[in-house]
Amino acid sequence: MTTTPGERFRHHAEEYSEDADDERPLGAYSVLLVAYISVVTALVVLGRKRLPGTLAPSDLALGAVATFIGTRTITKHPIASPIRMPFTKFAGVSGPSELAEDVRASGWRHAIGELLTCPFCLSQWMATTLVTGVVVAPRLTRTVMSVLAIVGASDFLQLAYARAQDLASD
Q1: Start-to-end CA span in the chain (Å)
Q2: CB–CB of 75/117 below 8 Å?
Q3: Which of 2, 10, 108, 166 has the fewest CB atoms within 10 Å, measured from its CB?
Q4: Element (H, E) at 34
C-alpha cells in the first residue's frame, strides 16, 4: 500500500508523541522550520555578493549581547506581553521585570507560543535577523545592537546593585 508524504508524516508524528503528556504541534513546527530555512536561503541567494567571509569580532560580541537581551525582552518582558498574549496565559512573575507565561491552545498557537516564550528558541531567529542586518544595513543594525547591549549591561548592573543592597542590609 502506497502512502502519501502527509500520511507518513502524521504516522511518524503520532509515534513520536504517543507517550507525551501534551500534544506536540509537529506540523506547525515543520512549517516554521521550513519558513526559517526558506528565508535564510533567500537571503543568501539575494545577498551572496554582499556576504562577508566572516564577521568582525566586535560584531560577534555585540550581536551575542544584543541577541541575549533582545530575546529576553521579547520572551519575558512585561511590555512585550501584548505580542505574546494571543499565544500565552499569564502565570506570574518569574524574576525582576520578567513574566512567566504558559503556552496555550494547540497547533499553530502552541508552536508560536513556544517560540515567543523561549529565549533559547527565539535566539536563532534574532541572531539571523541581526547578522542579516549587519550585511544589509550595517550602520542601522550596529546602532540597534548597541542599544540592546547597553540595555543588557544596564539590566546586569541593576541586578548587581540590588544584590549589593541586600548584602549591605544583612
Answers
A1: 73
A2: yes
A3: 2
A4: helix 26-47
Are the C-beta atoms of residues 104 and 110 closer than 8 Å to each other?
yes
Torsion of CA 61, 84, 80, 67, to 10 degrees: 0
C-alpha cell at 97: 521585570
CA 21 to chain centre: 24
pTM, two decimals, is 0.81
Please provide the DSSP assignment of 94-153 as one string: EETTEEEEEE-SSHHHHHHHHHHH-HHHHHHHHHHHHHHHHHHSHHHHHHHHHHHHHHHH
Angle between helices 26-47 and 119-136 (to 10 degrees): 20
Confidence tier at 1 by pLDDT (50, 70, 90): low
Would you state the cell numbers that stand for residue 104, as one nine-digit string?
A: 496555550
Give residue-wise pLDDT tens across range 30-88.
999 999 999 889 888 877 777 777 889 999 999 999 999 999 999 999 999 999 999 99
Pull the grid cell for residue 66.
Answer: 544584543
* Calpha distance 128→71 (Å, rounded): 12
Listed residue (63, 98, 67, 68) closest to 84, CA to CA: 98
Task: Please report the sign of the dihedral spanned by the C-alpha atoms of residue 25, residue 98, residue 66, residue 60.
Answer: negative
